[in-house]
UniProtKB/TrEMBL annotation:
InterPro entries found in the cross-reference section: Ala_racemase/Decarboxylase_C, De-COase2_C, De-COase2_N, Orn/DAP/Arg_de-COase, Orn_de-COase, PLP-binding_barrel
Species of the source: Actinomadura syzygii
Pfam family, one: Orn_Arg_deC_N
Domain of life of the source: Bacteria
Cofactor: pyridoxal 5'-phosphate
Residues forming the catalytic site: C330 (proton donor)
Annotated protein name in UniProt: Type III PLP-dependent enzyme
């Protein structure tokens, strides 16, 4: 692949997307719906694959919405999520036929209600709730702590009776990247308890329960997709106890996943451009830095990224101890690892970072420093199906009318 299409390149295996989908589906209680969160990887071939497998789409922008619709998602199977939606994007989504909105606040509830009224279309609003308890073992906590996500449970409890005719149920996505089954179960339990507390306090019966997801996978290091052998049965028993109508779709149970569905399908291939010593420490410089992978580490700490040697000159390699692994950008923040033990890498070596099909390229600082983006090579059943290269382009813009 590297010889044929050059480096840096993201390589996506669609068969792995299908495999991950089948594993996750088998781990979820039935009946339930599964949405693909485009945030993890909006590559059209991946979205098409998951749509064809029956996933709905969870989108957070008009760009993601357009990608989902182009990929064949039916607008009525799209859920539009996210804090701080603008009136214009909500209006555009309603116009495109989107009916499912997750709203995060009283303002968001009014916004979607009036956009739907204006368009004469029904909106199916899920009230995203920030519950009072935070679940243990969470990667990025989004609930039980002050946050931009969701309306506080206390607010929901006070106002549910007034807004019950406008909402279809609850959205309880709590956090991401839980690889441990017990932590996942604790999180779903916290979500179900939040929903049950609200239902008990107000007599409201949700028609839809979106329990979120957060199914974890090793990021940027090798490792198999975690299995969740007990999840379906334990969750089904909890649902039987708390929302007994769920087996007949009342409430309909929904899950969302980005990471689990796509992490394992993708690797980044890149090359070593320089190796030197600095103040006694080895420094390995790559063609790819936080412009191609791990850009979000500037916002939240990621574990170190240590690429694997794929192909070199065939000579035996000693180990470089405590190496700095850096990208080519002119900032000390462009560092994947500050102290890694790696084979003695040499300029020209091909290296690979596995499990970066999720939160890889689209979560990186592509615009920073103007280097070309990696190519994206898609293959399935042993054959390359498409190759493309995203780019940041500058378009002319006009003043806003009427100013
Ligand atoms: C990010 C996000 C997801 C996807 O999370 P993964 O960990 O990638 O599965 C799903 N739902 C919401 C609301 C999100 O913000």
């Amino acid at each position: 692949m590297a010889d044929r299409f050059g480096t840096p390149a993201y390589v996506y295996d669609l068969d792995e997307v299908t495999r991950a989908h089948d594993l996750l589906r088998a781990a979820l209680p039935q009946p339930s719906r599964l949405l693909y969160s485009l945030k993890a990887n909006p590559h059209p071939a991946i979205v098409r694959t998951l749509t064809a497998l029956g996933c709905g789409a969870e989108v957070c922008s008009v760009g993601e919405l357009a990608t989902a619709l182009d990929a064949g998602a039916a607008p009525e199977h799209v859920q539009y999520t996210g804090p701080g939606k603008t009136d214009a994007e909500v209006a555009e989504a309603v116009k495109s036929g989107v009916r499912w909105f997750s709203v995060d606040s009283p303002t968001g509830l009014d916004q979607v209600t009036s956009a739907a009224d204006r368009a004469d279309g029904p909106a199916t609003i899920l009230l995203r709730v920030n519950g009072t308890a935070t679940a243990p073992g969470q990667g990025l906590a989004m609930t039980g702590v002050p946050s931009q996500f969701g309306a506080d449970e206390a607010w929901a409890r006070r106002h549910l009776t007034a807004v019950r005719d406008r909402i279809a149920g609850f959205h309880l996505f709590q956090g991401t990247n839980l690889a441990d089954e017990a932590a996942l179960l604790a999180q779903f339990d916290a979500a179900l308890q939040t929903a049950a507390r609200l239902a008990a306090a107000t007599g409201y019966r949700p028609r839809v329960l979106n329990l979120g997801g957060g199914f974890g996978v090793p990021f940027a290091r090798s490792g198999a997709l975690p299995r969740f052998p007990a999840l379906a049965d334990v969750l089904a028993a909890r649902l039987d106890a708390m929302f007994p109508g769920w087996r007949d779709g009342a409430p309909a149970v929904v899950f969302e996943s980005g990471r689990y569905l796509t992490a394992a399908c993708g690797s980044l291939l890149t090359r070593v451009t320089d190796v030197k010593r600095s103040h006694g420490r080895p420094v390995v410089v790559l063609e790819s830095g936080v412009n191609h992978l791990g850009g979000m580490s500037g916002l939240r700490r990621l574990p170190p990224i240590v690429p694997e040697l794929v192909a070199g000159d065939g000579e035996p390699r000693a180990t470089l101890r405590e190496a700095i692994i850096a990208g080519p950008l002119c900032t000390p923040l462009d560092t994947w690892a500050r102290s890694a033990d790696v084979p003695e890498l040499r300029p020209g070596d091909l290296v690979r970072v596995p499990n970066v099909g999720a939160y890889g390229l689209s979560a990186s600082l592509l615009a920073f420093l103007g280097r070309p983006a990696p190519r994206e090579v898609v293959h399935a059943r042993g054959a390359v199906t498409e190759v493309s290269q995203p780019a940041v382009v500058r378009l002319p813009a006009e003043p806003i009318e009427g100013t």
